[in-house]
Structure formats: C-alpha cells, structure tokens
Amino acid sequence: MPVTPAVVIIGAGIVGANLADELTARGWNRVTVVDQGPLPLTGGSSSHAPGLVFQTNSGKTMAEFARYTVEKFLRLDVDGAWCFNQVGGLEVATTPERLAELHRRQGWDASWGIEATVVSPQECARLHPLVDPARILGGLHVPTDGLAKAARAVVALARRAQARGARFQGSTRVTGIEQAGGRVTGVRTSAEVIPADIVVSCAGFWGPAIGAMAGMPVPLLPLAHQFAWTGQVPGLAGRNDELAEASLPILRHQDQDLYYREKGDRLGIGSYAHRPMPVELSELPGGEVTQASMPSMLPFTEEDFAGPWEQSKLLLPALRAAKVDSGFNGIFSFTPDGNPLIGESADVAGFWIAEAVWVTHSAGVARAVAQLLTEGRSEIDVHGCDVHRFEQVQLSESYVRETAQRSFVEVYDILHPLQPRRSPRGVRVSPFHARQRELGAVFLEAAGWERPHWYEANAPLVAQLPPEWVPPERDAWAGQFWSPIAAAEAWRTRTAVALYDMTPLTRLEITGPGALDLLQRVTTGQLDKSVGSVTYTLALDEAGGVRSDLTVARLGEQLFQVGVNGALDHDYLRRQAAVGGGAEVRDVTGGTGCIGVWGPRARDLVQSLTDDDFSNDGLKYFRAKRARLGGVPVTAMRLSYVGELGWELYTGADTGLRLWDVLWAAGRDLGVIAAGRAAFNSLRLEKGYRSWGADVTTEHNPYEAGLGFAVRKQKGAFTGSAAIAGLDDGSVVRRLSCLTIDDGRSVVLGQEPVYLDGRPAGYVTSAAFGHTVGCPVAYAWLPAAAGAGTRVEIGYFGRRIAATVAAEPLVDPEMTRIRG
Ligand SMILES: Cc1cc2nc3c(=O)[nH]c(=O)nc-3n(C[C@H](O)[C@H](O)[C@H](O)COP(=O)(O)OP(=O)(O)OC[C@H]3O[C@@H](n4cnc5c(N)ncnc54)[C@H](O)[C@@H]3O)c2cc1C
After folding, report:
1. Which atom of ligand 1 is nearest to the CA of 331?
2. What residue owns the CA closest to ligand 1's atom 53?
3. Atom of ligand 1 at shortest range from CA of 333
4. pLDDT tens readout for residues 373-425
5. pTM exceeds 0.90
6. Among 43, 340, 542, 734, which residue's CB has the most CB atoms within a 10 Å radius?
7. Whose Cα sits closest to atom 25 in ligand 1?
C-alpha cells in the first residue's frame, strides 16, 4: 500500500469528521483528528445543530454541496438510527414579494437539478398542518430536503474513518502549528507534538484563533443565533415515534427571519430576527461539556425572542397553547459574503482551513477539500469559497466584523443580484473617483471598489436616442439598479467615444528571468513573442478546467503586465512562481489606473493628444506600447472588451486624474462621455466576451466555453495540456450558448433555468439588454446539440420566456469595428 501523507485535522465537528471520512475513503489512512472537547460531543456548533438542510441556493456550488450532503447522510446510520430524515422542506411566503421570490428560488432549483414546486396555501397546510393557510400566500416545497442529525452523523463518519485507519483524539487542545522551511510539520497540543505533512483546521468559529497560530487571516466572525424548544404542542402529540423524531417538513418563515423543525411533540424554533450578537472567543462558557452546557452555547436572551414568539403563534396557531420550554444563543461563523472558507495558507505550505461551513454543506465541502488534497482539484468549482478570494483590505478586522454582521442580518433577505452592500463603502476608489462623482456616477461595489454603473450626467442623452436605441420598459425586478441612461451610454460608445474606468480589474506585474517560463507553463497561449505583444490566454487546471482567463502584455524581455480576474489569480501565480523560481509576481492594481477609451472616434481623441503614432500601423490590434498623452505617461494596449476601436490606457495612480482630464477636455468636440458597467456589460455580451466566474469556471473546458481559440496546443506542454489534448470544438457535449429573447423586451438577470422541450436543460450565466441589437441577450450552458435556431424557454419568476439560440457574436463578427 502506498504511504499517504500524515494529516492532522483540527476539530471533530461535522466538517472535520466528514473530511476524515472523505480522505480515508480515498486511501489516505494516516489521518488524526484532534478536538479540544470530549468525543463525540465536543461542544462545538455541530454538537447542538438542529440540522435543517434546505438545499435551495442562488449559486450552483452551494446547492451541489447541499445535495451531496443529503445523498451522503441518507446512507449513514448509527446502529440503525438515522442520520438524515428526509421530511422535505417548505418555505412560506406572507407577502407578494416573497411569493415572487419563491418562484425565483424554484428557478434556481431547476437550474441545479433539485426537484421543487411552488404550492398553494392549502397545499402548504396539507404538508404542514400547523401552518395557518390564511396567513400565507404560498410556499416552496422541496421534497428531498430534511433533517440532518449532525451529532449522530459525526459518530457514523468517525466510525467509518476509524475502520479505515483514522485516529480520533478528544480532550486535546491545539496550542500551536509547528512549521519549518515554510512548511507545516505538525501541531502542538497541551501534551505533545503530533507530526503532520498536512494540517487542516476544521475548527469552526474558533478558526481565526487557529489561523493566527500559522499567521493566516481567517475572515469570519462568531455570532450568536437564537434557538428555542417549545414544550408540547397540541397537534403534534402522538405523531412521531421516538426514533423518527419528525415527519413534518422543515419550515422557513423568511419574512420574519424564522425557521422551525419538529422533534417528537415539540417544535424547535430558530431566529435570525434579533440584533447581531458578535462573540469574543474569550467570553465562551467553560466547564464540563454536556448536552445543556457547551462553549458554543450562550444563555438565552428572552427579550430577543419575544417578537419571534408572537410571530410564530401567528403562523402556527397551535403554538398559542404551548410555551417556550428552553433556549440558547448558539454560536457559529459568518463571513463577509456568507460563503465558506476553504484553502491553503499563502505562507505555510500544507496548512489548510475548511471553516464557516453549515451542516447543510458539510459533506460537499469536505469532499471538495479531500479532492483538492488528494487530486489537486475539486470536481465542483470552489472559487467562491476559496479563502484567497478576498482582497487585502477586506481582511481587516473591522471590515470582517461589519460585513459578517450584515451577512447575518441579510441571511433570509430578498437580495437582487446587483444589490451593493450599504457599508462599508468607499473602501477602494480609482484615481478618477472625484470626476465620477461630479458626473453623478451611480456606484455599485465589487471587491471593495466603487464602480460607476451609469452616470446621471448622461441623462439628457436619453432624449436624443434614435428610436431603435430606445430601450423597452423593464419589470420592477429587472428595473432595479438599472437606468435607460445605460442605453444612451452604449449608444455613444458605438457611435462616438466613451471613457470606461477599468481600474478595478486586477493587474499583476510578473518580472524576472523566469517570468516567461512561468507564463508559458501555466497558460494555454504562446507568450514567447516580441516585446509589445498582447495575448489573451487561459490558465487551466490539471483536468483542463478553466481556472482563469488572462490578458498578458509583454512590456519587456522579462516584464509582463497581466490582467487577471482577482486575488485568486494572484495567489495561484505567486505559488506557481515559487515552484519554478526566477519570477516575481506583484499586484500593481492599487498603484495604477486604467481608462478604456472606446468607440469609433477613439483614435481621433487619442491621436489629438500625442505625436506618438496611434494609427492602425503605429499600434496594431493586440499590441502595446508606452506613449505620452497630453504629457501623461501611459502604457496603451490596443484591446477592447466592448467590441469597438480603442485602447486601454494605463498610468500611475498619481497621474490618473490628469489623464482623465486631458482625455475629457480633448474629447468634448467628439462627444466623449463617461460610461459605466451597465453599458459595458451589455456591449461585452453582444460581442460574446465571456466573464470568468460567471460564464466559465473550472467545471468547463476551453472548447465548451467557446474559448478554444485561446489554446495553442502546438506550443508544447502546459498545465492541463494533457487533459485537453484530444478535445476540440467538435467534441463537446455542452456549450456556452448565446440566446436572444424572442419578445425583444423581457430581460433576465442570470442563474435562471433554461428549458429545452419543456425540461430543464441548462442555466443562464450572464444576461443584459443588447442595446445595439435591440433585444435582451443571455448566455447559458446548454447541450451542444442545441445549435443556432434552437427554440428554448427561460424560467423567470415562474413564467416561461421564449428564446432562441443564436450564432455569436451578435455584433461585428467580422471584427471590422474593433480593427478599424
Ligand atoms: C443555533 C444554531 C442553529 C444552527 N442551525 C443549523 C441548521 O439548521 N442547518 C445547518 O446547516 N447549520 C446550522 N447551524 C450551523 C452549523 O451548526 C455549523 O455551521 C456547523 O455545525 C459547523 O461545523 P464545524 O465542524 O465547522 O464546527 P464545530 O462543530 O464547531 O467543530 C469545530 C471543532 O473544533 C474544535 N476546536 C476548536 N479549537 C480547537 C483547538 N484549539 N484544538 C482542538 N480542537 C479545537 C471545537 O472543539 C469543535 O469541536 C446552526 C448553528 C447554530 C449555532
């Protein structure tokens, strides 16, 4: 038998136990799980988790994690006692907005392959007879949801892992992470040092304390959340035998931030309806761990439960004859964006974390981490859970504290996909921010950046729109965070010239004698080209999945500027540079600014500011050069995300405002405007440009994604080349496809299911109104057989919207505009 790495898992909660199971199932038998608490009831969050598993989620990854947890726990038991009771899940609506939201959620379920139906109030009451049908407008029923018995599942998983050689050691507190030469070598406990090649912290809300031992920031905040048990509820007595515990569906009343589960003749009630209650680790209760007393349980604050109890009696009238019997304020983790934290330390190789994970997603997360450890990649895209997704400024304690509390408050809110956070704002601004404010920019937020979505200063242009450019009215949902000004900005970009702030797109500088080798090794493109070349290329994982797309400009023999998708790419390239040596990777985003100057008058504008040659011969498409515009030093790259003639102009953060001002002044006679992300997104979709993370992830190969043109197979081996060797555009079974909406007016927003012959066959990844083509455009994953002309339907709030697969790109397929 091959010797597998020695792994120490810190934490024997539902995540640690699942991970031990997943690793040992893959033949890694040198696994030790340590926990500071006694086994199996350690006193962590899993020891008292009520275990409701609702699978519905806006994102595919989290839904798949949940679905795997259900499938796995259904097959677990402890001496015949269940670990998953598939009672189904019911979410009820008491407002028209929530009912519409339930239809939207049903759409997500259809997208991710989870059976779900929106049902009438009467059907809700039939499924859950305690619910007063007069109080509700309908419900979402998911028959495969149910109750996970987390504490029992921990026992089942531990037994299985132990049978394969794992060791579980309770009452063992980890006090330090041992390391040498940048690698983890073990964990120090109160009694000994346990050697390890890999350490995975599954310490739940204690994560930041363990992370600190390895110098790794863990951006989560422990928060208390109320949970109460009622006494006997009339109507429940005699329904369930002792072993089954429950037969009614788990229930969510999101309009009041409440959820319910049955246990024998009692109900458990969880409430998010209270103020956020952050918890300091130093305040945790000590003493012996028992069912009723654990470090993760704080005393019940009755006053916070008064309102929720009244609301519960309204929805479930049988509770009027019952009492609150007991309760506690249980602690678990919240993160800035609500997602888990998975990944390896940037500084201590072999030190990993898997934290901020609900019971619901625990098996899925553990499988992903086990796959990352044993195979180097997860079959499910995990970029939204990668701990390195955050920018440095987002790792500050104050940022995490504020945003994690907001995640708590918003946990059951109806959130529009474009809804920006209210605070903290102004965390990162581009050099042009002052001018943008003067122009009435409406800012949304991403990765801490303030990003103009459109500019109110352009409002007068709406009245000047030619009739074919006037956008149709939108419904109330699609009309949020949108303005017809975006149409005017798109129009001016296609007919005159516009300035786009591209500063927030992450830029790396890769330098040194090993820089070219690094890029050749990790990307699909041929980058051994002349200085001044710009290349659009892909980074694949070993299985050929697209882990990112990059725009690489060779600015010197050993100097490359690389446009990437965010902090994850920086982390990846930095690690890869360390493997090969001789290359340094630096994030230069904050020290630079970038303006995209795009439109048919772009050359007139730029050339008027310089003696440098910006003609077609002077700077060809996909070439870069340094120049001066109105005296401002820039690096100009002849590229365009919007499909028009123009350049990305980079300059230092110090000279950014000056660059904006000289372009603005020189452009007045040419009709220059500032344009925002709403117009940008519309124009890029019309041109067929993919957005990594939304349209394409590691789950897709380049050919499926329509990115095969960026692969140079003949250049020799690169990461992922073996996996895609036999693939081409003709070999794919699914494809990222362009759809146009038949009625010319119904805008969808993304994540909606796409039906082919009446059955769910894919999902929308990005969508916008195509102002140039005069109809809404959506990109969607669909079977490859659904070629151009195929009629489909998109599910939108329970409606079906007819759409047709179109040949792409919709605008300028001959590239005459962009090469002009
Ligand atoms: C009231 C309440 C209700 C909830 N309801 C649900 C629900 O219905 N559905 C759902 O999906 N989720 C629910 N959750 C969330 C869920 O319980 C947690 O997210 C989940 O249990 C976390 O599992 P874990 O294994 O990461 O953490 P834990 O179970 O907390 O395990 C972490 C372990 O690490 C150990 N540890 C920490 N520090 C050290 C150290 N220095 N040395 C050794 N060991 C250490 C701890 O002792 C602990 O056992 C609820 C949480 C609460 C509080």
Report:
1. 53
2. 330
3. 19
4. 999 999 999 999 999 999 999 999 999 999 999 999 999 999 999 999 889 99
5. yes
6. 340
7. 13
